[in-house]
Amino acid sequence: MPGQPIPLEIEEFRDRHWRREDAARIETAPQAERFIEDVGFTACLTDARQPGPSLYVAVCGRRDAVMPRNVQKDPESSHTWVLKDEVVRRGRVYYGKLPRGKTMFIAPRLIPYFNAIWGIPKRDEKKRLSPAAQKVLHVLRKEWEMASADLRADSGIADRKVFTQAIDELQSAMIVVPSEVLYQPKFTYIWTLAVGRFPEELAQKVDRQTALREIARTFLTGAGMTVMGELARVTGLSRPDAGLGNRALVAEGYAEMLERGVYRLASLKTQTKENA
Predict the structure, then answer these.
(1) CATH architecture of the domain covering 208-275
(2) pLDDT tens digits, residue range 229-243?
(3) Alpha carbon of 181 to those of 86, 161, 185, 190, 225: distances in Å?
(4) In the 8-state DSSP scheme, what is residue 216?
(5) Packing angle of the helix pair 29-39, 208-223 (nearest 10 deg)
(6) What tens digit of pLDDT does each residue of 103-130 get?
(7) What is the model's pTM?
């Protein structure tokens, strides 16, 4: 990030944990799922210009991977897209668009924590969901799984933009997820209820403080160090919430605060002393 360069030893730490090495690059859907489980959560098609782990960067297997302008003709971005579709269809990890446009994969063990931050209890749906989102949800709870066009027709939402916003709203609340992507006879998503795929994880009750701490722990474990604003940019959390999570790790001795907004794994300090 501008003004806050990442030390070389931290970049190398991230190379290992985020599969930014040719020997560890991702080629298959099972490998992608193991990668998601290892890092906890990851973006899909971000590149080296964005912070955090990325499936695309892991497919490329290099730290400096940058998405080309013409992605349709690029084998690495095309392969990432194919893997994304297969992982979504397999349904072993969570995939959806969270608030602030953060579309990401989430390992099942992290679902309760993200749901504690972004989820909406069923009792609050009428107060917090828009009328369009409630219409879509009403239909989907009866049918359980539907393609976009059918879902839009059955919910009575003629405006495509309003329907898309409703779907995004339901994804942000971790209520609806895509279950498959079809390209024939035409491109469409198949939508389903998140609770159908991850009933146990979404049923767990976690307090907000614990959720912030564990999301921060997961990121720091793979990143080695986080600089000001980085956790917020990766997850969509507010900076105050990201700070609460990181400071909770400092309080328990898992991390150390180097300066305002900059945190490092405490175990790395110990390793540095031993190497010296």
Answers:
(1) Orthogonal Bundle (1.10)
(2) 999 999 999 999 999
(3) 9, 19, 12, 6, 36
(4) H
(5) 120
(6) 999 999 999 999 999 999 999 999 999 9
(7) 0.92
